[in-house]
Amino acid sequence: xxxxxxxxxxxxxxxxxxxxxxxxxxxxxxxxxxxxxxxxxxxxxxxxxxxxxxxxxxxxxxxxxxxxxxxxxxxxxxxxxxxxxxxxxxxxxxxxxxxxxxxxxxxxxxxxxxxxxxxxxxxxxxxxxxxxxxxxxxxxxxxxxxxxxxxxxxxxxxxxxxxxxxxxxxxxxxxxxxxxxxxxxxxxxxxxxxxxxxxxxxxxxxxxxxxxxxxxxxxxxxxxxxxxxxxxxxxxxxxxxxxxxxxxxxxxxxxxxxxxxxxxxxxxxxxxxxxxxxxxxxxxxxxxxxxxxxxxxxxxxxxxxxxxxxxxxxxxxxxxxxxxxxxxxxxxxxxxxxxxxxxxxxxxxxxxxxxxxxxxxxxxxxxxxxxxxxxxxxxxxxxxxxxxxxxxxxxxxxxxxxxxxxxxxxxxxxxxxxxxx
Amino acid sequence: xxxxxxxxxxxxxxxxxxxxxxxxxxxxxxxxxxxxxxxxxxxxxxxxxxxxxxxxxxxxxxxxxxxxxxxxxxxxxxxxxxxxxxxxxxxxxxxxxxxxxxxxxxxxxxxxxxxxxxxxxxxxxxxxxxxxxxxxxxxxxxxxxxxxxxxxxxxxxxxxxxxxxxxxxxxxxxxxxxxxxxxxxxxxxxxxxxxxxxxxxxxxxxxxxxxxxxxxxxxxxxxxxxxxxxxxxxxxxxxxxxxxxxxxxxxxxxxxxxxxxxxxxxxxxxxxxxxxxxxxxxxxxxxxxxxxxxxxxxxxxxxxxxxxxxxxxxxxxxxxxxxxxxxxxxxxxxxxxxxxxxxxxxxxxxxxxxxxxxxxxxxxxxxxxxxxxxxxxxxxxxxxxxxxxxxxxxxxxxxxxxxxxxxxxxxxxxxxxxxxx
Lengths: 421, 421
Known about the structure:
Oligomer: heterodimer
Structural class of chain B: alpha+beta
CATH architecture of the largest domain in chain B: 2-Layer Sandwich
Number of domains of chain B: 2
CATH architecture of the largest domain in chain A: 2-Layer Sandwich
Number of helices of chain A: 15
Number of strands of chain A: 11
Helix content of chain B: 40-55%
Shape of chain B: globular
Order of helices and strands of chain A: EEEHHEEHHHHHEHEEHHEEHHHHHE
Largest sheet of chain A: 6 strands, mixed
CATH topology of the largest domain in chain A: Cytochrome Bc1 Complex, Chain A, domain 1
Largest sheet of chain B: 7 strands, mixed
Distance between the termini of chain B: 61 Å
Number of strands of chain B: 17
Strand content of chain A: 15-25%
Number of helices of chain B: 15
Strand content of chain B: 15-25%
Helix content of chain A: 40-55%
Strand order of the largest sheet of chain B: 1-2-3-11-4-10-9
Radius of gyration of chain A: 23 Å
């Protein structure tokens, strides 16, 4: 990967170009950050859907799809996710690199133009979005939100966060609620869109072999027309849990989902985040982690038992799928591994293997077009941007003492179980 | 040893094909500028191979044994392969499908050590009663996890509705009951029949040198005798077994799979696969009138998808998604198939579909893992990957219209639905 050329093109708008000739495709994405709030989450989620369905130039999704398909199956996509207590809206286009077109045409310039149209020139009816388009996407977003129940693992994760962070913005789902989705009007979407253009933070990435100059110029020109008054984005990191809360839901399922939510005491730009990430990898980040070896292989309790560090919010989530009769036993087995690290029972091999595994993951990420953008976007909450090499060097500098210290910062906040009768 | 260079000027791609003296087929696909290497070592032995004659002896094995064998092969006399990989940083895994089992790793460093480990454990089975028993708990939980997945259930219910006797109707992992019958002797019988270098293939993509691979294979692989194995698949009738099947699970919107059963008397050519891909894009992509009608009437959402599904003794086309009225979706899909047959394909629609299919296929060569798995797939199916790309680029309206005559028989379908409780 070549170095990144990152420029601020307007207040709170960064345009990063990564020139890379290894791939068949190129990609331009805009990640748009707004505060996560229960009053606006559903409107932003619906807005993202409506904006990627059509625009003024291609006023229905068949016209837009046909245009994209004629550009060798290019794609336009939109989505929302949480990064700490910000909601991140993503608008992206990707398609074949100009070199692989069967005829002479600049796919990348066409795609830059389409992405700009989608963001700056949506299909409007006065000061409202087109109502038919909104109704189509509203139905689909409701089905998407309700459909979360289909994937029991994802559903259990959402329930845990909702219960654990019920008094914090982080407990809000990325689509908000079905009730709120039903209530958003086409006029409200228009004002949400205007607010987004005026106040959101934009991170735009251009990754590919073609020149980013046209895309950068078009975005710069569009933002010059807009008065910018940036949102303040922040995430509250709860330092520790006072007591353990336990919740259980019952549903017709064959396997129980067991989730443990810990407060890690550090996140965002805090010192100690790297040690916490490494500690979490040693616990349950690979096929030689403590959970894999002791909970899965030695005790045959489960097929998966993993830990994830949500560093933007300072949480560690442990999850597993088990027999109903083994819920308590698995919970104790997980806690025993956490206690082992707290007591300093972690070997040099375990530490080195985790470091190697993390380095392997980091280097691999940048062998894909999407991975390159993700590498930087995943760091937006860190308050700084590191290269892969810099990040690996930081991990390699972590000591055993720092790992043990990280484990001792963990406090169990919430235990969630989804099980059958 | 013969090293053959296979080049596609159009795709700007090149790989090496080696017929190793041990009988193993090796594909080495260097990708310039990549920092990671992905290796996959596969055998054409998947869940459908439950009845065979090896060296004159007829053998029947319990359902799910190919997948069970995949898990157990990681076990070595001196520990397990994951532990060996740990010191390399590599990410190792394996998967079992209907018609093959593949062992893989992705690394950014220590490549030669990783390849030694891979070749070593796959060619040295070690099964005991104790280790077999231990695995039953772990795989049991994997099966339970799939039991709760509506997408998985709706597909297997459909396959059971379509296929009366062919083992493609059996769950890949088997059932908790069937895997309880597996013995070390069964595992050795399968291993000795199908894990023979003469019918296996190794593919390595990314940062890799062909001579280094050849040298490691020379050092690590021992010559082995060819084994005479006949796999027995009962011939399924052309007609589906059931036209409609329904199941209940906790889902928000009903989930459906609609399968069109086709002639499976021989494997398809590269051209037939390519023309079918173009045809499916024409018929069902987001650019199509059919998709438009289904969306406008609220019958589908963005989860709608389609695919060809073909292997030894089975050949069909699936449509799937979420819908409040799957029977109405079935009617609309069939209506548009008949319409396309009656009215023919317009040159403009064809050109859009050809370009989009080409772009999609080409972009799959971006990633080392997709490239490697495609290479294995095509080899085991007796097809050539570059011929498939050429077939898309060279397709004509007549080719695709003629394909439409042979497939998508609207009288030979199974609709599988999972409804909420």
